[in-house]
Every structure is written in C-alpha cells, then in structure tokens.
Amino acid sequence: xxxxxxxxxxxxxxxxxxxxxxxxxxxxxxxxxxxxxxxxxxxxxxxxxxxxxxxxxxxxxxxxxxxxxxxxxxxxxxxxxxxxxxxxxxxxxxxxxxxxxxxxxxxxxxxxxxxxxxxxxxxxxxxxxxxxxxxxxxxxxxxxxxxxxxxxxx
Amino acid sequence: xxxxxxxxxxxxxxxxxxxxxxxxxxxxxxxxxxxxxxxxxxxxxxxxxxxxxxxxxxxxxxxxxxxxxxxxxxxxxxxxxxxxxxxxxxxxxxxxxxxxxxxxxxxxxxxxxxxxxxxxxxxxxxxxxxxxxxxxxxxxxxxxxxxxxxxxxxxxxxxxxxxxxxxxxxxxxxxxxxxxxxxxxxxxxxxxxxxxxxxxxxxxxxxxxxxxxxxxxxxxxxxxxxxxxxxxxxxxxxxxxxxxxxxxxxxxxxxxxxxxxxxxxxxxxxxxxxxxxxxxxxxxxxxxxxxxxxxxxxxxxxxxxxxxxxxxxxxxxxxxxxxxxxxxxxxxxxxxxxxxxxxxxxxxxxxxxxxxxxxxxxxxxxxxxxxxxxxxxxxxxxxxxxxxxxxxxxxxxxxxxxxxxxxxxxxxxxxxxxxxxxxxxxxxxxxxxxxxxxxxxxxxxxxxxxxxxxxxxxxxxxxxxxxxxxxxxxxxxxxxxxxxxxxxxxxxxxxxxxxxxxxxxxxxxxxxxxxxxxxxxxxxxxxxxxxxxxxxxxxxxxxxxxxxxxxxxxxxxxxxxxxxxxxxxxxxxxxxxxxxxxxxxxxxxxxxxxxxxxxxxxxxxxxxxxxxxxxxxxxxxxxxxxxxxxxxxxxxxxxxxxxxxxxxxxxx
Lengths: 154, 652
Known about the structure:
The complex is a heterodimer.
Chain A: E1 6-11, H1 15-24, E2 33-38, H2 46-54, E3 59-64, H3 75-92, E4 100-104, H4 110-127, H5 132-139
Parallel strand pairs in A: 1-2, 1-3, 3-4
Helix pairs in contact in A: 1-4
Chain B: E1 5-10, H1 22-30, E2 35-41, H2 47-59, E3 64-69, H3 72-85, E4 93-97, H4 99-103, H5 110-129, E5 137-140, E6 144-148, H6 152-163, E7 167-172, E8 186-187, E9 192-193, H7 194-207, E10 211-215, E11 217-225, E12 228-235, H8 250-254, E13 258-260, E14 269-271, E15 273-274, E16 286-287, H9 293-297, H10 302-306, E17 319-325, E18 327-330, E19 334-336, E20 353-355, H11 356-363, E21 384-391, H12 407-421, E22 426-431, H13 441-450, E23 455-458, E24 461-467, E25 470-477, E26 482-488, E27 490-495, E28 497-499, H14 503-510, E29 537-539, H15 549-567, E30 571-574, E31 579-581, H16 591-595, E32 601-604, E33 609-612, H17 622-626, E34 632-634, H18 639-650
Parallel strand pairs in B: 1-2, 1-3, 3-4, 6-7, 6-18, 7-10, 18-29, 20-27, 21-22, 21-27, 22-23
Antiparallel strand pairs in B: 5-30, 8-9, 11-12, 12-17, 13-14, 15-16, 19-28, 24-25, 25-26, 31-34, 32-33
C-alpha cells in the first residue's frame, strides 16, 4: 500500500499542543506525518509549502488556531488567505489542491488531530504519489536561499 | 563551523522504548552528518541522564544537543539548563518530541514508529545546526498583578500577592466579592460556617492597601505580554456613584420593584436597586436597569429622590479603566450545569426539585428560610428528602463526561445537615460511586451513614415527576437489584460543575487555552498545574477544573507564589526567538509594518528601511512570511532552518 509522506506545520499554541494531548490520551493515528513546530501558522510562507512538495512530500498539513483564537491576534487569517491563494496556484502547477490542507485545531482537540491526520493521509493516499514529472519540473527551479536540494527520492 | 551535535535518545521507561527501537535510532543517527555523539538512556531527564548530557558536551566538544524524548513543553527548560551548566548556550539545545508525537500515538506499528522517530530527530538536528547562541532579552516588568474573579480563589491569590508586597488589581464582575462560597451554608468536612471563614477575607481584600478592588467590572481587552500587559477594564454602569454612596440602604428599602435574587438562586427576591446579600463587599448597591421602572417608563425615580448623598445617577455610563500589570491570575470559577438540560428530572419545572446551590440557601442561616429546611412549593418541612449525585456528570452520551469531584461530599454534607435540622426526617442519597478522596472526607461520609442514618442507594434515578404534592422518584438499587420508588417531599440535584459562562469568551481575550469542556488548561497536568501555557497567566480555583474549597485555596496560593517568583526579578527575561531585518537587503516597502500585530516595527525614514524593536516583537513570524524579499528572519527558526527540516523529514 502506498504510504504518503506528509509534512505538518503545527502552531505551537494550538495544534502542536493538541497533538501532545492526543499523545497523552494515547490516541492512535497514522504515522505518515512529521510535525514541525512553528510559533504561528502565519509563519508559513508559500515557499515552505512548495519546497515540501519539491522535496517529496505527498501532502502538506497546516494546523492553526481557530478563527478569533490566534495567540498573535490574527496570524491565522494570514494563513487562511495564503492557503486560498495557494490552492489554485498548486492546481496550475499540476499539484492537486487537496494535497494542501489547513485545519483549525485547538490545544483541547486531541481527537481532532487524530481525525484530521487519518483523513488527510487517506485523501493523499487516494491521490497517489505526487506526480514525478512535476517534481522534475520543479527541480529545474533554483532552490530558495538557504535551502539545499538533497538526493532525490525514489 | 564544524557541527558536533549530540543526540540523546530517551527510553522514558517503556513509554518510548516499548514502541520505538531506541538502540537502533541512536545507532543510526550516529552516522548522520554533523552528529558527533549519539546515545540512549532509560530516563534522560533524571539526574544521571542530565549528567550524561552535561558530560558529553564537554567530552565531545558538542556544539549542539538534541534530546529526543517528550514534548518540549515538558522538559525543554530542563535540558536547556543542563546545556548551560556545561557552557553550551541554552538555545543550542533542542527537544525532538518522539513520545507525544510518536511512541504514544503509533503503538501498533513499531517499525513505522521507529522510522518516524528517526525523521523527527533529523529535523531537530538540522534545526540545531543553524541555531545561534542567543541570550534572553531583558525587558522592564510591571510588578503589579491582575486577578480576575473575586471568589475564594481570587481573594486568596490577591491577598497572598499583596501580602508579599506587590500591588494587585482584583476584578469581579458581580457587585460583590465572595463568589459561590458566600452562598454556602456550612462546609465539609468540618462544618465550618462558610460565611464565618469567608467574610473576614472579603473585608481584608477591600481594605488592603495594596489591593485595588474593582467590583461590577469586567475585562474588556488585554494586550501586551508577560511582564507588560495592558488591561482595559469595563466598569459597568451601576447607576449609583459608589464612591459617594454611604451604603445606608434607603434606596433598596424604598424601591418598589422586586425580582428574583441571583444570590438566593431564585428562592427569594431582591429589589431592582440592590446589594446581592447583607454581607456584600463593598456593601453598596447597584441598579439593575433591565428591571427598573425608571428605565422602563421614566417614572418612579424614588431611589434618586430618597438618596441622602445624591449618589443615584441615571445618566451613568460604562467607564473604562486602563491598568498595566505584569502577571494575570485567572480565577473565574464555576457555574452549575443548566438544570433545564436534565429533562428526566423535570428540567427545572418541578418546584420541589432544587439544585445543590438552592439547597445551600435553604440550609443557610442567612437564607430565605432563616436556615430552616422548608420546601419551595408550600413552605412545609420535608420529611423525605432524596439527594442525587452525578446529575450531568459522568454522562458522556448526554451531558459531561468528567466527575465534578465535589458533589459526593457536599451531598453528604447536605444530607447530614438536613438530618441535624429535621431529626425525624429521612435522607436518601442515590449514587454511582461515593468518592471521598480528601483529608477527613471518608470519615465524614461514614459519620453521615452511621450517626445520621443517611441511606445510600447505589443506582441512578431514571425519572422524577410530581404526584399528589410529592416528587416521585423512580430509581433502582443495583446492589439488591430492586426497583426503588420513593414519594419524596424534596429532591436535591448534585449538578455538574461547569466553567463560568464567561470563561470561554475571556480565554479568547487573554489568548489562553481552554480544555474540551471550557476549563482553563494548565501547562502540564502534573508538573505545571497552576500556569497556563501562555507565559504570565496563572490559574486558580474551579476555573481550571472542578475542585473544592481547600483545593481552590491551595491552587490560589500556588498561583500567587508563581507570580511572586516572576516578580522576584527586576526585569523579565523573554525568549529571544524574535524577528530581525537584514538592513542591507530591506527595500523599505513597509509590508511588514502593516502585518505586525504589535506595532513592533518602526520605519527609519533616513535609511528608508524597517527595523524591528526586539523588546516588543513576540516572534509570531507574520512579517517574515509577508516580506517579499525574504529579508526578515526569525532567530533560530529561519527559512533556511525550515527548509532543511522539511528536507530532513522527507529523506528516506
């Protein structure tokens, strides 16, 4: 069975803590995602998302605070706008927009972390591996400053 | 710089090692580029574990450390201290969360969990490689605390902080301090009179030279950060100038309008202009405009006419008070679960089915019946009284899943006090389990059953309904397996404790986390039980979870000591994980200024560039993501670090 690789950018105030809660509650979910902790989902730049796809991610999951609950007042609204701009952009690049997912998950919602993680893995699994031709196409582009292309995966 | 990273893989007993092959992880990472040393140990956070880290830093000249263990929320500070003890800059120590985010959630697949643990650790190795050595940023701190909520927890926290020599602003939304404790008759397990132990404290907070007591006030807005909060407090229009009022009570006496009293839980009335109870602090009235004849029709105005000091002011408006504080204690308390939701018990429509707080008022010497237990419908002394535990609690299908912790004890107290009042009466308690954890609690329960003949029946009551002036109780005694029917004169519901109705809204203003049921979340359930995850916020009392008076007081004092520890330093040391602008690259487009929620970025018009004020920056990263030329970076979470972390996570 195809095991998608998922990059998760989780806000440390909400979704990251929600994932901690899922852990302390011993909830079980698919092991496909690796979580990167950021101070705010609004820290995530479109380039981070594109870079993840280029580096072999089959899906990118962003977890932020519920609207109105941002620890930094309104960072999550920036994320929301960015993701809505990103979706048609991904489509234009030939990446299914469903490979990018933004979810609002609070620190109290360990259950939601589990549900979202499992559902997203299934969604991406149904989409199949990210089209390699496309990755090649993206590989032609220069790496952003500070990034380095590592050996390409199978 | 040559990287010499140390990787320390914790077994956490079997918590990690039971799922993740820790030996393999440590071995495999020993070969990862930049790793100079890699090992595993049973408990990394223990003294020998920390010593391993300290020794290895010196022995292997490590430039960075990745402790692969639990969530950074738990032990980041521990290992940063360990690093610093070996002269490794604390910001070159990172945690890889392979417990909460890996071993605990992937127990079914050890192989995949092991692979994932390796990936998680690799991301942190890549991060630490580029971590700068930083120093905390010192900012001035306001040594004044805000306490929200004037119940017993808030009162205790305010007194403790003030007695330690710091100024306190105590904000209470109702006209008086005292909270629910002021409504109680006696308290378990000592049967101390609640008023007798509470009212002196209420007076003390109102007279303490270091406490500014703001009753009938609410938090409108909070900005800033630990050490430097700016709080806007809404002083609700009381239509009485409470600074002028001398509390003579003439207005209350003459007011022609009566409405149900909140303090008496609807069992008695109050006037439209009122003090909630006789021992209120401050003992000065407020006017309830929703129930005032003057506000309805423009007529009446008796209170204004009669006031000897002209304190009644119908034109009064809400006012705003600005306060600067360094720490905030949240003690907003609880409400009872709405009885209207319990349809099988009448949903509040049966007069002689009362809530636990109503029964407290019926027992109280200052209550509507002067302490004689008389039922609401006809004022008769009830001879058969049934007490129900777990009404709403421990019912995940229909109501709340948690145990409200105090109901077993206060219903025992209720039954006991009822028997002390009505010697020939019979008290029944229907229970699921009798939970008497606490000093002297089990003995108290034994006393109720043995000395006061309270009859405990193990089972749930399925239905309550009225019949011939009685409340019919249909239940079951699961120990004998028999159906039980009691024609009761009065039924008391031990309703679940839920967070105060304002709690969730306040949490949004304070930007602190709440749990599933709306109780404020502590930073760690065991080791940081009185702090919020957001720095500078401390939790006290039932706002954090159901608890009784001793626990609420203990937690309030604990919060106060945390505040005092914070205030023990002149300045606050903030995390230096802030944004910075490369001045040579900045084009001066000012996009960053428009997205910064803290006005932390100033524009240098001479050089035509933006500049971040580190002392104000909160490190949210909004400006970094918005900067069109990638000129802004976050210390120790640069774009370059994020790229490398992404790559590491995806590497096979």
